[in-house]
Q: What sequence folds into this?
């Protein structure tokens, strides 16, 4: 009798486990089908949309961004960020109409290497979109800065506020006088317009796209540095440990 009871209990546990696993798997599959590739992309790179709320590793950055945004309301800034994000997304679609579909498939692959590859490819695609978009002069300028290995943490750059036209002009003058990087007036005008909100992001993207930082540092960098006003070279020296990177990849794998 005891043996029969033990068998029944064992079978019940096994069947129950199968049911729980099946329900969990179905729930995960539902979650996966819930978001499009573009929505996943916007969550990871722009901290935008409902999907970002499900990525626990991005919550600190999202919280800080929201606090900074509330403490420093700026409608013009918000509109600029929204427009720039949309322009980049549209340009990505022009470059590769299947990109977001492929991005979704890689992110949902339950393969950590595939996810890391997808995130790296996403950063490079963002950079490519920047070069093809109306923001190309800024990206070309930053590419030249990167190619000349200019140390943006040098004393001469410290204290510059890219929301001030006078400081942007100082920045441009230093690059021209000390490094031979010349910017024509039209490009300088555009540079100033974008510096107010976007130069931090573009510098970070150049670093990420050349694999100077790990995948974890890619997440949300586009808008985080705009709203939080972190020094724009901070991404290079940020939380870039193997553990943090693996944790972020795991988070993406479990979420999507």
A:
């Amino acid at each position: 009798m005891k043996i029969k009871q033990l068998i029944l209990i064992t079978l019940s546990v096994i069947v129950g486990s199968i049911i729980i696993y099946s329900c969990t798997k179905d729930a995960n599959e539902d979650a996966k089908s819930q978001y499009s590739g573009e929505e996943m992309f916007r969550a990871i790179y722009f901290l935008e949309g409902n999907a970002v709320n499900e990525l626990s590793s991005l919550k600190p950055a999202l919280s800080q961004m929201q606090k900074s945004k509330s403490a420093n309301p700026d409608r013009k800034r918000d509109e600029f960020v929204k427009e720039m994000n949309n322009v980049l997304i549209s340009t990505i679609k022009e470059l590769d109409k299947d990109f977001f579909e492929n991005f979704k498939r890689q992110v949902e692959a339950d393969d950590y290497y595939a996810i890391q590859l997808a995130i790296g490819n996403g950063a490079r695609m963002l950079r490519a979109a920047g070069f093809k978009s109306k923001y190309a002069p800024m990206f070309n300028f930053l590419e030249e800065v990167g190619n000349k290995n200019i140390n943006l943490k040098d004393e001469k750059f410290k204290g510059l506020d890219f929301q001030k036209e006078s400081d942007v002009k100082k920045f441009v003058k230093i690059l021209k006088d000390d490094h031979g990087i010349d910017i024509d007036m039209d490009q300088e005008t555009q540079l100033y317009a974008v510096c107010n909100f976007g130069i931090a992001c573009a510098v970070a993207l150049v670093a990420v796209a050349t694999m100077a930082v790990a995948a974890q540092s890619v997440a949300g960098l586009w808008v985080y540095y705009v709203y939080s006003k972190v020094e724009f070279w901070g991404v290079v020296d940020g939380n870039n440990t193997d553990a943090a990177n693996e944790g972020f990849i795991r988070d993406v794998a479990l979420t999507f």
